[in-house]
Amino acid sequence: MIKTFTVKGKLIAFLALFTLLLYAQGSFLPRALFFSFCGAAAAESLFFFLKKQKFSFPSSSAISALIVGLVIAGDEPWWVIFLSSLAAISSKYLIRFRKKHIFNPAAFGIFFVFILFKANTQWSGTFLWQILVPAGIYFAYQVRKIGLLAGYFAVSFLLFGLQSLVNNSAPSGIFGYFSYFYIFIMLIEPKTTPVKNFAKVFFGAAAACWIFIFVQARAGFDAELAALLLMNLAVPFLNMIPERRKK
Fold first, then answer.
1. 138 lies in the same domain as 230
2. What residues form DSSP beta bridges with 101?
């Protein structure tokens, strides 16, 4: 069930309106979204029924389906999109540590079909910073991930800024490296990111480092998704780092 005034409910409403805006602009086809929801519903219904002997479609699965539909390339075969969303939800139940899922579901599902079928991403609307930045800051504040964003932007500006100096290019070009949908929607997902303050900053900073490395190496995969999944693996260890007590 979706509770409208929870953070999840607000995020679903935002993603739905964002999708409608993209569709109205002619930059998004609902085909990917349809098969993404079909895959998410199939996986969630199966696992939820096995666990509680009833059918349900939690709000978190709706969020994953929306993200997959917006990020994966819309011209991929329908079964690839379906499988991506199926893998996204399945990862929540099958890949766990201490009763918590490890990977960002949407990132895992999309990267999964890349590994198997070389599926592509298109990141629909990711450069609409005028919409994504204020909304993302609001959601980051709500889930207490502002420190994560601070770490990400600090390291991104440092690394890409130094690159701009070396290449004698305009510093303003740094903003062109940012995938705002990734940063303000996927990177701050609360359940697969650290809970401690220092760990949040480190998570964001390290994700930015990995992206820079992958971009410079011209890696043949989506740098943002790979960086996020790598850092998801580190979260159980980052949460073990003791924090200094305030005197």
1. yes
2. 96
Residue 115: closest CA among 225, 35, 228, 39: 225
148 and 202 fall within a common domain: yes
Same domain (yes/no): 144, 225: yes
**Which of the four pLDDT bands, split at 50, 70 and 90, describes residue 40?**
very high
Q: Which of 117, 148, 174 is the last residue of a domain?
A: 117
pLDDT value at residue 1: 46
Expressed as residue numbers, the domain containing 34 is 7-117
148 close to 193: Cβ distance less than 8 angstroms: yes
Q: Which of 74, 95, 117 is the last residue of a domain?
A: 117
Q: pLDDT tens digits for 71-123?
A: 999 999 999 999 999 999 999 999 999 889 999 999 999 999 999 999 999 99
- At residue 244, the pLDDT reads 66
Give the residue among 85, 212, 236 at the shortest CA–CA distance from 152.
212
Q: Please name the residue that has the structure tokens 């200094």.
A: 244
With beta carbons less than 8 A apart as the criterion, state whether 212 and 166 touch: no
- Percent helix, strand, coil in the chain, to 5, is 70, 0, 30
Indicate the length of the chain as a whole number: 247
- At residue 151, the pLDDT reads 97
